[in-house]
Amino acid sequence: MSPQPILYSFRRCPYAMRARMTLSYAGIEVRLREVILRDKPAAMLGASSKGTVPVLIQSDGKVIDESRDIMRWALNQNDPASWLESADRDDSLVDLCDSEFKHWLDRYKYAVRFPERNEGWYRQQGEQFLAQLEMRLSQWHYLSGASLSVVDVAIAPFVRQFASVDSPWWSERPYPSVSDWLHEFINSSLFLGVMNKYPQWLEGDADIPFPTQPYERL
After folding, report:
1. pLDDT tens digits, residue range 150-160?
2. What are the residue ranges of helices labelled H in the chain?
3. Bridging pattern class, strands 208-210 and 30-34
């Protein structure tokens, strides 16, 4: 029997979150290796010189080190709710999340590192993306329609980060539909099921089976 794939991950990384959620949804079992980003294991760097998570090493040794590629690979193995259909239709929204929104999110979150503007200005730039999500979610329950899809899974971890930068501001619900959607998402079994805490993996440690329990779609 071929060994299960290896997944290098970091619990709080939004890229790793969305990869873990898609693997869980697809029912693909992997050997999880939790990484501390300031102390990256040589084995991970040997597999991918990028030095970022997630990194998936397939059973045949092939490496996938982009989160969206891992997601698509997982969905090609098993896609019980046809998430690939929404991925093909709404890739442009995820593109915008990963480019412009992530750019402003980093500056909003770490405004002290970017003194050219203040935190409020950076937040306003990121809000342009939130306004697009608000428009969608005022019409649909999820970003691609009535059902949860890979588009929600790809974007929600980044909106979660944005919301946590200034919790009092977010609690005023400037984007009520986005707020409701995010609240439901971070309390879902899919999200909570991939957010267990694991110790840092060190060379010689046993790998951790993941997911620890199968995701049950409602």
Report:
1. 999 999 999 99
2. 14-26, 42-47, 67-77, 83-96, 102-109, 119-137, 150-165, 167-171, 176-186, 189-192
3. antiparallel
CATH 3.90.1150.10 is the classification of domain 83-191: no
- For 99-127, how does the pLDDT look when each residue is reduced to its tens digit (9 = 90+)? 999 999 999 999 999 999 999 999 999 99
Are 9 and 19 in contact, with CB atoms under 8 Å apart?
Answer: yes
pTM, two decimal places: 0.95
Inter-CA distances, 98 with 46, 53, 60, 104, Å: 26, 15, 29, 10
Two tokens, residue 27: 């029912």
CA distances to 110, 139, 184, 185 from 65, rounded to whole Å, are 25, 35, 29, 25
Tokens of 120: 């409020």
pLDDT band at 1 (very low <50, low <70, confident <90, very high): low
C-alpha–C-alpha distance, residues 82 and 52, integer Å: 29
- Distance of alpha carbon 120 from the chain centroid: 25
Domain with CATH 1.20.1050.10 in the chain: 83-191
| Two tokens, residue 126 | 């990121």
For residues 26 and 18, give the distance between their C-alpha atoms in angstroms, rounded to a whole number.
Answer: 12
